Amino acid sequence: MVEDPCFTGIADLLATLALTPAGVAVDEEGILPAGLRRVLARPAAALIVTPRAQNPTGAAFSPSRQRTLRSILRTRPNLLLIEDDHAGPVAGAPYATLVEPSRLGWAVVRSVSKSLGPDLRLAVMSSDPITAARVQRRQTLGIRWVSHILQQLAVALWRDRSVAQLLARAEKAYAARREALLRALAAHGIAAQGRSGLNVWVPVPDEASAIQGLLQRGWGVQAGERYRLASPPAIRVTVAALPPGDAARFAKDLASVMAPVGRSSAS
């Protein structure tokens, strides 16, 4: 079971392992309880969720959604629960886990790619003993060995107060850029979501037309097709390098791109 829309890396991994994804719809507070109940009615071995900064929608678990989802998952204590907390300290939302002491199989993975830098190629994991042992066995294979030098560097950065201050500033900057874009889109009547993280998810009538029109105006965005299982068309806008001052111009350009599409489809 995966989120829908789902991060492309997870979808590609499942395809490589010949596993069939079952999508659970997402809103700004994470996976929908009704969708989770529906998918749990079918055979399923695992649930992969992103507690915050969900890619591509920016969803983040609210306290009420966390409680509801935990209650539903208690009916399946043997289900393997995997949380992908990839953004960590720059997510722009507090961490809310679905893992409880009664959960037999679970893993929480937190990458350093979004916070300390992708070149470190590192993540930390906490899990139940059996899952930890399985991962450790996989890590002993030569190509999966992780450099001790890089591990020590990551630990040194975590201990550095100046780095912690820098990450706090980065989190605020990402949040300001995300919120500026959401306000600019709303001013043009364009619905979008991006509660946390580095992306804003914008439903559009036609992905190809929106992407082409924005490209002609100097903007690069990601098509939602690769992320979607059954969810409707949308584009992913990354805000990491979009200053608040440019948000209004982007929203205006997107509105002009979507306007003829909307008139055409309405006719």
| SSE string, helices as H and strands as E | EHEEHEHEEEHHHEHEEH
Could you describe the largest sheet, including whether it forms a barrel?
A: 4 strands, mixed
Unreliable spans: 262-267
What form results from the Cα inertia axes?
A: globular
Kindly report the spatial arrangement of strands forming the biggest sheet: 4-5-6-7
Alpha-beta classification: alpha/beta
Beta-strand share of residues: 15-25%
Helix content: 40-55%
State mean pLDDT (0 to 100 scale): 93
> Radius of gyration from the CA trace?
20 Å
- What is the count of β-strands? 10
| Terminal-residue CA separation | 38 Å
List keywords for this structure.
four-stranded mixed beta sheet; alpha/beta; 8 helices
Would you write up a description of this structure?
By secondary structure, the protein is of the alpha/beta class. It has helices at residues 8-16, 33-40, 63-73, 129-139, 148-159, 161-187, 207-216, 244-266; strands at residues 2-4, 23-27, 30-31, 46-49, 80-84, 106-111, 123-127, 199-203, 222-223, 234-238. The strands form three sheets. Strands 4-5-6-7 form a four-stranded mixed β-sheet, with helices on one face. The protein has a three-stranded mixed β-sheet with strand order 1-2-3. α7 (207-216) crosses α8. The longest helix is centred in the middle third of the chain and has 27 residues, at 161-187. The radius of gyration is 20 Å and the shape is globular. The chain starts with a strand and ends with a helix. The model is unreliable at 262-267 (pLDDT under 50).
Quickly describe the structure.
This protein has helices at residues 8-16, 33-40, 63-73, 129-139, 148-159, 161-187, 207-216, 244-266; strands spanning 2-4, 23-27, 30-31, 46-49, 80-84, 106-111, 123-127, 199-203, 222-223, 234-238.
